[in-house]
Amino acid sequence: MVLFEAARWAPSPYNNQPWRILYARRDTEHWPLFFGLPAESNQVRAKEASAIPLSVSKTTFDHIG
Asked: How many of the other CB atoms lie within 10 Å of CB of 24?
């Protein structure tokens, strides 16, 4: 959890933080959704994982001025 929190607050231009880190732990309601995201070749490894992280970011810039 410390690693995820540090990534969430990592510096970015104009303090924009355009990213989010999501995760699903095994045996939770979100596991099937996250498990279905990687390619089949990666699902082979993911089935043994205790959690699946997902990093998403915006592709636009919000700074005005």
From this structure: 19
Residue 25, domain member (yes or no): yes
> Hey, what are 23's tokens?
């995760």
> Rounded to an integer, what distance in angstroms lies between the CA atom of residue 34 and that of residue 40?
12
- Encode pLDDT of 45-65 as tens digits: 898 999 999 988 888 877 775
29 neighbors 5 (Cβ within 8 angstroms): no
Cα–Cα distance for residue pair 9/53, rounded to 1 Å:
17
DSSP 1-12: -HHHHHHHT---
Q: Which domain holds residue 28?
A: 2-11+18-57
> Structural domain tally of the chain?
1
Q: What is the pLDDT of residues 1-44, one digit of tens each?
A: 888 788 878 888 787 778 888 999 999 999 999 999 999 999 99
